[in-house]
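Sample pair:
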Amino acid sequence: MRVGTVARFAVLALVASLAVGFFSAETARADNLYARIQGAVTDPSGAALVGAKLTATNVGTNANWDTTTGSDGAYAFLNLPIGTYKISATQSGFRNFTATSIVLVLDQVYVLNIKMELGQVNDTVVVEVSNVQVQTVNTQLGTVISGDVIRDMPLNGRNWIQLQQLQPGVMSSSDRFGTNFATNGNGSQTQQNSYLINGQDSNDLPLNTPLIIPSPDAIAEFNLVTNTINPEYGRNSGAILNAVIRSGSNSFHGDAFDFYRDTFLNTKNFFQKTPAIFHQNQFGGTIGGPVWKDRTFFFFSYQGTRARQPQAFTVPTVFTQVQRNGDWSSVGFNGAPPSAPGLAPSNPNVSPAPLFGDSASACPVSGGTPCPAG
């Protein structure tokens, strides 16, 4: 077989594998990334309507999902991306029904029971539904924070993970896992928390903190689950933070930002004559929109951080010449370090041998640190 033939065969195999992966991605969806709408369709007397046709339409992308009612009049739309929807129902001998302004959030089960009215199919009953519901299907305890709230809140370092500390039962962690705004949810251990981005694991396993933290402007919303966790979150027993990245729609949308901090806004500490130089820019933006209307969409986000912050060298303790010779009596009872050699039994604050060895008396500089003046 010639080299050219082998190369063409390899290219075809690569294209075929990519195509299979692309078109089979629909089966690899994560259950914790979506919401659903369910309910029952009945006539004015409350009897179930069998075979009623229903359509769920995403207002932003104009994507449609179709289903029909079963023998008990029940229906369900599963795996719906978060967003705003309208539901249309039709049945012969009844007026068309349309429910608008249905806003779905992460892991939500929205219950919409429809009562059809007798009349001509050319007539339509339009209802603007309420998005405040008593949750009777999902037993999870959690809070959904929308992207608008995330972007409007003042965030230290633009780290939106810290917003989880505002939720009931969540406390900041103080153990060795308490880096990067780690928390305890309802008494669970920090290392039992789990962080998901678009349904994918995003955990720094040694610390169990987020592996990556996208820009706040890129977050559509996040759901913090703290108790009675559903089976899809079965790996961890602590709090679950599930975040979703914004997506494109039929309209172009985006933003640009630059958060700037400078020296003139800071002050000096007790030991500084002037404030330390500090310049920080956190900048970036987002943009999303249609590639092919009603079919293909894109979303892009970028955030950069540039900081200049020189570190001032400080020495917490400068030993005097007397202390370097082993006499710690000036610092009070048992002021000598536990590792001080040869402490005198009669006076535990005095060591007959120099604490730092023969070089300790080499003033004005000993070990790079001069003796204090005065």
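The chain has four domains: 29-128, 141-245, 253-308, 315-374.
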